[in-house]
Amino acid sequence: MNTVNASMTVIGAGSYGTALAITLARNGHSVVLWGHNPAQIQTLQQDRCNQAFLPDVPFPDTLLLEA
Questions:
Q1: pLDDT by residue (tens digit) across 3-57?
Q2: Which of 16, 21, 22, 62 supports an S-S bond with 10, CB 3.0-4.6 Å?
Q3: 35 Cβ neighbours under 8 A, 6+ residues apart
Q4: Where do the coiled-coil regions begin and end (predicted)?
Q5: Predicted pLDDT at 5
């Protein structure tokens, strides 16, 4: 089986974007989760989870967050 680990950015740090970014990062891809609100991204970075949408799902260590 041929495995490709891609670098990608998920635009939107809401419920869907967060879930997609976590899934991709867990599967070995280099992922940046981008959100338009710097304060929200700072909170996500500090908490290492999205308390508003997926409070029980921690971010993989490899998941990067940017605004």
A1: 778 999 999 999 999 999 999 999 999 999 999 999 999 999 999 999 999 999 9
A2: 21
A3: 12, 13, 17, 41, 44, 65, 66, 67
A4: none
A5: 86
Q: Could you tell me which residues come within 8 angstroms of residue 6 by beta carbon, excluding any fewer than 6 positions away?
A: 29, 30
pTM attached to this predicted model: 0.92
End-to-end CA, the chain: 36
Give the range of the structural domain holding residue 39, as residue numbers without chain letter. 7-66
Q: How many residues does the chain have?
A: 67
Would residue 1 count as lying in a domain?
no
Spatial separation of the C-alpha atoms in residues 50 and 28, rounded to whole Å: 20
- Sheet containing 7-11: give its strands across: 7-11, 30-34, 64-66
